Amino acid sequence: MTARGLSIALLVGLLLVARPGLAIDTDPKLADPVQQATYERLTSEVRCLVCQNQTIGDSSAPLAADLRREIREMIEAGRSEEEIKVFLLERYGDFVLYKPRFKPSTAALWLAPLLLLLVGGLGLARIIRRRAALPVPADDEPDAAKEG
Amino acid sequence: MWRFLLPVAIFGLLVAVFVLGLGKDPALVPSPLIGRPAPEFTLPRLDDPAKTLSRGDLLGKTSLVNIWGTWCSGCRQEHDALLALARDSGIPIYGINWKDDPQLAREWLATLGNPYVAVGVDQDGRTAIDWGVYGAPETFLIGPDGTVLYKHIAPITLDVWREQFLPRMAEAGAAK
After folding, report:
1. What is the pTM of this model?
2. Does ipTM exceed 0.90?
3. Residues A29, A91: one domain?
């Protein structure tokens, strides 16, 4: 192996080994795989309010670690996913969930994309229909071009 | 004519929405606790861990609950304002020392002065979670019946006190 090939192989190897070093949540897994799945789903849906564009699963902020511990303990105590979400909503408000609940104050958030799609679709349909109704110019006819 | 004006109007509306949105601070998340009873808590006291500070101690008088830590630079900033409020306004200020070393916290109060009637120690952050705290300093205004009247996130200043806290206290007092 050339020196260049060797150094690339070494770099790739080191990066592979270093992967676990990037993990934020280093707590041991929950014993029950179903509970662990719930835990992973929740920590990927709950916003860390200290660093707002990270989930608590991705954040190294102390508050995120506290919230992970709180969620873990509630799961171990047998609380449902819904109960845990309500627990968080009562304390931190709608913003804490990456998928906010559908309610009057969040309706615009959920419905605006549908509304825009509808308006855009209707506009597009109108334009297509109007263009389709236009007469086709004679020299655009492919057959006419061939015969001519 | 409307075919020209409509897109312009929609664009204008969007610009207005964005300009208004830019003026808001995304770090300020409204607390769902406002208007609701303050969360229950019982914490060991900073000056004497054998004693406790709990929700019941807040009742009977309008009070402030201030979340602080010696690691928090904003808490250092607001400390003089808290001292002035404790001295001049007569409102009892309770502290919750959040995720801190109690020894450092005691030294901080001994050096800088102590604006608090009592300080509870929340080392593992559980009380802070119940109060929906996400960044110190935070200051809650608690009515005599234990209702959360207002929450201020960021260092408190005498201007904030006059503009945000006093009107809410007057309003709550008038409602009774």
Report:
1. 0.78
2. no
3. yes
